[in-house]
Structures are given as structure tokens and as C-alpha cells.
């Protein structure tokens, strides 16, 4: 079955890339083992941490929606200059050690050939596949950015309406279908209680929980968040109440049953602009897998640097010494 799915994804995804700036197999000549090196790094971490796919999906999204997919999120802050890592939305982003490990092995095999931006895209694809999601060809050839500014981090938040969230996606040339599909990445991962506490206690100042949330879920989440302590002041809850570690269409089934944890997730099932897409994915797992692969490839091409733009970092956390910021 997976062979058939791979063939279908090749037809749907690879052929249209013939005219794109990026291309599948970019490193075939310059670094033949590039993709297998990244895959091995992901496998090692996944073997001990099944939550890493959610972490990489979040990293990839946060990177691409700020200055494009240029690995600017990987830069460490210094005493003189803060980076995107210091921006509020990125404080809980993780997975950096995995990227470092892949980069170290790539530099040993092919010095200064594979960009950190491509490592993020490839690692995310591999993690999605390990979690039961589709394997899709990733076009490569991205270059790494020369700027990482926390003041430029403006990401759609969890309390936005569908139309408000869509403004952020539309600005990146993403469609409503793309947005709903990509938010389906919430089929894995968790949310801190601080992101949804109002929905289970005092929704919009009513003194009552959000009426669009299933009462049983309200009770469950109150129990989780009520267990906050000095050592764990902001507990987490799974975003998908069904298959929390599997990339599948269960998320859409869950929000159709009023089991969305974050407000934007539940809004997808309620809003007329998106509920038809949600219903389609909830009833057709194959459709979601195909569209998810397409949307990930499309997101991965947002404002990419190619050719001689940017640089190929030797250390993903640090700009090369001779960089010239734009």
C-alpha cells in the first residue's frame, strides 16, 4: 500500500516541481548520502522520543512563516544580539539537538554542501513518515538566511478566528484548504494549559466553559490543568484525543465531535469557511494524507533563498563569519 502511495505522491508532487527553484534530488551529485544521513538522525531520536515529529512540524512552520524557510529560527542569541529563538512563540520550540546532530554528520561527509534549511524540511518529512503519515519527496536547494530578528516573529495565535488566521496564511500565498490541512498537524503534539485555560473556565468572560467544547473534555482538561505545581506550572494536554502520536485524520474526527483543545482547532469544524474541508478529511484518510504532503511541500517553498542568496552554514546555530546581512 505504501508503495502505491509513494508513487501517487511522486506524480502529484514531483512532476509539478520541474519549473520550481527547488528540485527533488538537489544533492544527488554534491552530497549523495544527504537524505539518508538526515533520516538516520531522525530515526535515532524517534526511537527514544515519539513526540519529536510534533516538535519538528512546529519548528518547520515557525521557520517558514518568518522570512521564509531559511533556518533563521536555528540561530542562537548572543549577548549583543537576540535571535528568533527569544521571541515568545518560539520559547517552547524544540528539536534543535536533532538538527545539530544531522548537520555534524553532513559536514563530516560533505562539508559546506547541505543547508540547515533543507535539514529542517527533510527531517520533518522523515518524522511525519515514522509517525504513520505519508512519505513525500522534498524538493531541496534552499540556502540559509543571514538575518534572525525576534521582532519579526508574528505568527497566528490559537485564539484567532478562522478568517483572522487565514489572513496570515493568505499572506504566504496559502489557500484555505492549505491552512486547514496544515493545522491537521495538530494530530500530534500538545498544548500548554495557558493556551486554552479560558475555554475550560471562563470563556470570553462568561464564567462558564466554551459551549463548543464537549463537557467530558472540559472535565478532563480541568483535571490536567488543575494538577499544576511549582515544578510543572503549565501542564500540557494532547491536541488529538484519539491517536496522539500518529499522523492521521483523527484530529478532524475529534474536532467534529467538539473535542478540539485550542480555540482555532475547534473553530475549523464550526466555521462555514472551513467545516466542509474538515468533514472531507474526517471521512477520507487517504485524501488528508495526500493533501498534507502537498501542503507541506508548498509551505516548504515559502520565500526560499536559492542560488547564491544567503549561505550554507557550517553550524546551524551560528552565521558564518563572513556573512553579509541584508
Rg, please? 20 Å
Query: Could you give the distance between the termini?
Result: 47 Å
Q: Biggest β-sheet: count, sense, barrel?
A: 2 strands, antiparallel
Beta fraction: under 5%
**Low-pLDDT residue spans:** 14-19
Would you report the number of β strands? 2
Q: Write down the overall mean pLDDT.
A: 93
Mind explaining what this structure looks like?
By secondary structure, this protein is mainly alpha-helical. The chain contains 13 helices and two strands. It has a two-stranded antiparallel sheet. The longest helix is centred in the middle third of the chain and has 15 residues. The radius of gyration is 20 Å and the shape is globular. About 2% of the residues have low confidence.
Task: Chart the SSEs and their pairings.
Layout: H1 2-14, H2 34-46, H3 52-64, H4 96-109, H5 116-130, H6 162-170, H7 176-183, E1 190-192, H8 197-201, H9 215-225, E2 236-238, H10 250-256, H11 263-270, H12 275-283, H13 285-299
Antiparallel strand pairs: 1-2
Amino acid at each position: 500500500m505504501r508503495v502505491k502511495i509513494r508513487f501517487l505522491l511522486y506524480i502529484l508532487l514531483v512532476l509539478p516541481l520541474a519549473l520550481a527553484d527547488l528540485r527533488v534530488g538537489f544533492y544527488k551529485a554534491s552530497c549523495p548520502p544527504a537524505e539518508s544521513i538526515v533520516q538516520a538522525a531522525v530515526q535515532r531520536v524517534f526511537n527514544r522520543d515519539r513526540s519529536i515529529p510534533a516538535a519538528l512540524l512546529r519548528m518547520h512552520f515557525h521557520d517558514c512563516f518568518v522570512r521564509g524557510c531559511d533556518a533563521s529560527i536555528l540561530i542562537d542569541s548572543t549577548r549583543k544580539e537576540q535571535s528568533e529563538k527569544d521571541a515568545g512563540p518560539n520559547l517552547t520550540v524544540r528539536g534543535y539537538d536533532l538538527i545539530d546532530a544531522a548537520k555534524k554528520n553532513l559536514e563530516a561527509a560533505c562539508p559546506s554542501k547541505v543547508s540547515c534549511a533543507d535539514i529542517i524540511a527533510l527531517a520533518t518529512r522523515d518524522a511525519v513518515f515514522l509517525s504513520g503519515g505519508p512519505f513525500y519527496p522534498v524538493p531541496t536547494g534552499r540556502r540559509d538566511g543571514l538575518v534572525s530578528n525576534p521582532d519579526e516573529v508574528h505568527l497566528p495565535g490559537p485564539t484567532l478566528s478562522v478568517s483572522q488566521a487565514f489572513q496570515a496564511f493568505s499572506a504566504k500565498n496559502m489557500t484555505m484548504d492549505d491552512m486547514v490541512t496544515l493545522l491537521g498537524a495538530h494530530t500530534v503534539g500538545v498544548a500548554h494549559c495557558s493556551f486554552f485555560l479560558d475555554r475550560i473556565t471562563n470563556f470570553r468572560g462568561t464564567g462558564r466553559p466554551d459551549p463548543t467544547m464537549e463537557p467530558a473534555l472540559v472535565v478532563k482538561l480541568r483535571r490536567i490543568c488543575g494538577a499544576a505545581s511549582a515544578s510543572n506550572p503549565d501542564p500540557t494536554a494532547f491536541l488529538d484525543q484519539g491517536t496522539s502520536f500518529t499522523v492521521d485524520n483523527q484530529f478532524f474526527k475529534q474536532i467534529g465531535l467538539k473535542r478540539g483543545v485550542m480555540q482555532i482547532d475547534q473553530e475549523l469544524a464550526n466555521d462555514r469557511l472551513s467545516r466542509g474541508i474538515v468533514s472531507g478529511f474526517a471521512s477520507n484518510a487517504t485524501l488528508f494524507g495526500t493533501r498534507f504532503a502537498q501542503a507541506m511541500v508548498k509551505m516548504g517553498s515559502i520565500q526560499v533563498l536559492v542560488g547564491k542568496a544567503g549561505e550554507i552554514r557550517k553550524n546551524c546555530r551560528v552565521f558564518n563569519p563572513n556573512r553579509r546581512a541584508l
